[in-house]
Design brief:
- The two termini are 59 Å apart.
- By secondary structure, the chain is of the alpha/beta class.
- The strands form three sheets. An eight-stranded mixed β-sheet has the order 11-10-9-12-13-14-15-16, sandwiched between helices. Strands 6-3-4-5-8 form a five-stranded antiparallel β-sheet. Strands 1-7-2 form a three-stranded antiparallel β-sheet, with no helix packed on it.
- 43% of the residues lie in helices and 15% in strands.
- Helix 10 (352-374) crosses helix 17 (471-480).
- It is globular, with a radius of gyration of 31 Å.
């Protein structure tokens, strides 16, 4: 609580037009003590109290009232705007207005308001801006736009709340294929969203299953994180997939085809596959959706879930955005309802090709970005190479049927930025070590799966098939195949002929 005092002239009224008044905001309680010789005027519209001090007028939103208040009157303010304490002068005087408020916001001077008398003073730009960076008009416009957005959001969320609850209630059992870091993180999210849902991790390692079931920890990937009680593990596919409603696929791409074939007879035709894996199959160039359809049938329900996300940050419940893509938007909506939480936003898309291709190719580009970092060529070079790589991914993706909006969204450029610029990226780490002089063989022996290594060769086949030039992605493939050194490849890319960007 703080005290603001201001000298007021006697019997002074100030009138404010609607356009001068800020929109309402934050609840604030205030007690106002008005000297007998002064008046503070209230108006039913625009719900404002205007306090006149010398030649400067100050405004705060409050309950709609008319007339004036008397000495000692008490008011409860609501939807306060902002208060600039430096606009008030605290002096010892019997004629003063004392305002006590419960929160420290700012009162912003009202543009155009003036005192009675023959002369009208115009406020300075600094005065109109108060303590913030916006003028009163700018602040009003910004607040109005934000209020509209929040109102729309709340209405829509209220309408969807019942649907989300019913979808989660119907999902009595969800199986996650694979016990890796990302599969474990997504299993934890599902379990936290609905503690009544049975979440089963289907894993190969008996010791890992034991660790999850007895200690509630994935000892291999998240030894410091305790899993929710409704997360269990099994090595028995038949037992795990019995009466399952949703299946989350988190198996590495190169092992997916054989694994899906081994469990195809156990997968209920009504259980949607939610695919988390990113990459292209070596030898065939198939995306995950194509592998699922080839194994389980072209009519099997499928959703691809992708976007800028590290498993460790999902476990830490840090804000994340993903995209659920399916030819069946209603199914995508159901998957969004299953995974969405205060810290996880799941957008919807019908562009399965765009989401998959962007998710696969960004891994190759991340290796390129890492190589530049490992060579210590500087931030300018990383930015230039990544920008060129984005262009190549867009050109190939669109030839394959992707939508431009997908490539500029979270599943496209969002995932690219995260993977290319953040050290947590496995593919970027491979590139950094290559640039620093390590061999690919040494790197693969010591690290976890980096899908970009396998995908790089497939990209060249796709470039040839769709007649697209991909200099950066091709250079990565050549480096991985030991056809050229990282530094030579970067210099060759820098000295290619100039062509118009469009």
């Amino acid at each position: 609580i703080f005290l603001v005092s201001s000298i007021l002239t006697s019997n002074m009224h100030t009138f404010v037009s609607v356009k001068d008044v800020l929109p309402v905001r934050n609840l604030i309680r205030a007690v106002i003590h008005v000297p007998k010789t002064n008046h503070v005027c209230f108006f039913s519209k625009p719900r404002a109290i205007c306090i006149q001090s010398n030649s400067n007028a100050y405004i705060a939103a409050c309950f709609p009232l008319k007339g004036s208040i008397q000495h000692g009157a008490k008011l409860q303010f609501r939807d306060f705007s902002s208060l600039s304490t430096r606009q008030f002068v605290s002096r010892s005087s019997p004629d003063r207005l004392d305002i006590q408020v419960a929160e420290s916001n700012d009162i912003v001077p009202v543009q155009g308001a003036s005192s009675e008398g023959p002369e009208k003073e115009v406020e300075s730009e600094e005065g109109r801006r108060g303590a913030g960076v916006l003028t009163q008009e700018e602040r009003a416009s910004v607040q109005n736009a934000w209020d509209k957005l929040i109102r729309w959001s709340r209405i829509k969320l209220r309408r969807e709340e019942g649907t989300m609850d019913s979808i989660r209630a119907a999902a009595e059992k969800v199986v996650v294929l694979g016990g890796g870091s990302f599969g474990t993180a997504m299993a934890s999210i599902l379990a936290r969203n609905d503690p009544s849902t049975e979440i089963v991790l289907l894993v190969r390692d008996e010791n890992l299953a034991k660790s999850i079931n007895e200690n509630h920890k994935n000892s291999r990937y998240f030894p410091e994180h305790t899993l929710p009680d409704n997360v269990t593990a099994s090595t028995n596919a038949e037992e795990a997939l019995d009466e399952v409603q949703y299946i989350v696929h988190a198996i590495p791409v190169q092992a997916s085809s054989n694994f899906l074939a081994s469990i195809a007879h156990l997968v209920p035709s009504s259980a949607p596959i939610i695919c988390l894996s990113k990459g292209l199959e070596v030898g065939t160039g198939r995306m995950m959706a194509e592998m699922v359809y080839a194994t389980l049938g072209k009519t099997h329900p499928l959703v691809v879930l992708s976007g800028p996300s590290f498993a460790v940050e999902l476990m830490q419940e840090k804000p994340t955005m993903l995209v659920a893509a399916s030819s069946d938007l209603q199914l995508a909506q159901s998957v969004s309802a299953l995974f969405s939480s205060p810290n996880l936003r799941v957008n919807l898309s019908d562009d399965v090709v765009g989401v998959e291709v962007a998710g696969a190719l960004k891994n190759v580009l991340a290796i390129a970005a890492g190589i530049v970092e490992g060579l210590n060529l500087g931030n300018n070079a990383i930015a230039a190479l990544t920008a060129q790589g984005c262009t190549e991914i867009r050109q190939l993706s669109e030839k394959m049927g992707a939508k431009p909006a997908t490539l500029s969204g979270p599943a496209g450029v969002g995932d690219i930025m995260l993977t290319c610029f953040v050290p947590l990226s496995r593919n970027r780490t491979v590139g950094v070590r290559l640039g620093a002089g390590e061999s690919l063989e040494e790197i693969l022996k010591s690290g976890r799966t980096a899908e970009g290594v396998a995908t790089a060769g497939v990209v060249i086949s796709l470039a040839k098939k769709y007649n697209v030039s991909l200099p950066v992605l091709t250079a990565v493939s050549r480096i991985l195949d030991n056809q050229t050194s990282p530094r030579t490849a970067v210099m060759e890319l820098m000295n290619m002929p100039q062509i118009p960007e469009n």
